[in-house]
């Protein structure tokens, strides 16, 4: 499958995080209705045996390198609505483990800690300085089909936390690639991240071996030790679909308040109305 150079990405998620008894997985696992098994190897590797992986010669890189020499995502902080898709070198590539196009696959590099917040239940913070652009952690869990997402959301009450995230990637021909991930029952530390209307992390889909993207969280700014880590559940750029006075979801359930404390706080947590009302779902082929 080909992906356009210009892809605009938006993400939606629903409510605050609280601790649950669940299984830990560092990587996505296939859940009910998943079209693609996230553990399946989809992409051919590059053949950079003698030369480093560079744009022009490496088939894993399009126009630009994904990361700079200090492992920072190059595209981070460009205040555009569009993001280029990131493909890392994979298990079939000829290059070594030291290749600069292998970052997310190396896993956690910073000391993170789950802690109890004042109003938001559990949260995740860093114990060390994280420079802007560095990979922080993944949001990993069960990869679901749309029907299963709707089924799980319908079962929720106001007291339940919702961890399901929908990532929509808009491909060059108008096609939309949707990925649904639920870390509630099987997931990683990503589930402890709280929403903020002024977050310090940005979620970027990164593909390594599989067409199913890793939902990789990168530092959107320099982050100091002890700072809580957060991201915008609705995606950084498209928070506009929520208006402050919409206090009820499409299904009549009340919306959850946001306690992020940011100046620009939208008062309620974002939600994805298309997950409640199938008619609002964008065309997917
Ligand atoms: Zn290569
Ligand atoms: Zn490669
Ligand atoms: Zn490589």
Attribute tags:
single chain, 285 residues, mainly beta, Beta-clip-like, seven-stranded mixed beta sheet, four-stranded mixed beta sheet, 24% strand, globular, disordered C terminus, binds zinc ion, signal, S-adenosyl-L-methionine, SET_dom
Tell me about this structure:
Residues 1-21 form the signal peptide. It catalyses: L-lysyl(36)-[histone H3] + 2 S-adenosyl-L-methionine = N(6),N(6)-dimethyl-L-lysyl(36)-[histone H3] + 2 S-adenosyl-L-homocysteine + 2 H(+). The chain has one helix spanning 146-154; strands at 7-12, 23-24, 29-30, 82-83, 86-87, 112-116, 122-126, 135-138, 141-144, 165-170, 176-187, 194-195, 201-207, 214-219, 228-231. With 285 residues, the chain is mainly β. The strands form 3 sheets. Strands 1, 2, 3, 4, 9, 10 and 11 form a 7-stranded mixed sheet that branches. Strands 5-13-14-8 form a 4-stranded mixed sheet, with no helix packed on it. The protein has a 4-stranded mixed sheet with strand order 6-7-15-12, with no helix packed on it. The two termini are 13 Å apart. One zinc ion binds next to loops. The site of one zinc ion has 9 residues, from loops.
């Amino acid at each position: 499958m080909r992906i356009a150079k210009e892809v605009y990405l938006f993400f939606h998620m629903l409510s605050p995080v609280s601790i649950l008894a669940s299984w830990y997985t560092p990587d996505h696992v296939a859940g009910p209705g998943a079209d693609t098994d996230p553990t399946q190897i989809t992409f051919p590797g590059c053949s950079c045996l003698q030369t480093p992986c560079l744009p022009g010669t490496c088939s894993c890189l399009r126009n630009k390198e994904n990361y700079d020499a200090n492992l920072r995502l190059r595209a981070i902080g460009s205040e555009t609505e569009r993001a280029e898709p990131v493909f890392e070198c994979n298990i079939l590539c000829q290059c070594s483990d030291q290749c600069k196009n292998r970052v997310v696959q190396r896993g956690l590099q910073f000391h993170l800690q789950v802690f109890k917040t004042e109003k938001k239940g559990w949260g995740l913070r860093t114990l060390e300085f994280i420079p802007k652009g560095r990979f922080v952690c993944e949001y990993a869990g069960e990869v679901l089909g749309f029907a299963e997402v709707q089924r799980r959301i319908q079962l929720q009450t106001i007291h339940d936390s919702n961890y399901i995230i929908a990532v929509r990637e808009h491909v060059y021909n108008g096609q939309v690639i949707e990925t649904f991930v639920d870390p509630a029952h099987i997931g990683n530390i990503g589930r402890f991240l709280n929403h903020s209307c002024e977050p310090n992390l940005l979620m970027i889909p990164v593909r390594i071996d599989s067409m199913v993207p890793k939902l990789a969280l990168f530092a959107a700014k320099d982050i100091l030790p002890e700072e809580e880590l957060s991201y915008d559940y609705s995606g950084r750029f498209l928070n506009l679909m929520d208006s402050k006075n919409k206090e009820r979801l499409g299904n009549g359930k009340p919306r959850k308040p946001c306690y992020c404390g940011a100046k620009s706080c939208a008062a309620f947590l974002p939600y994805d109305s298309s997950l409640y009302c199938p008619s609002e779902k964008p065309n997917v082929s």
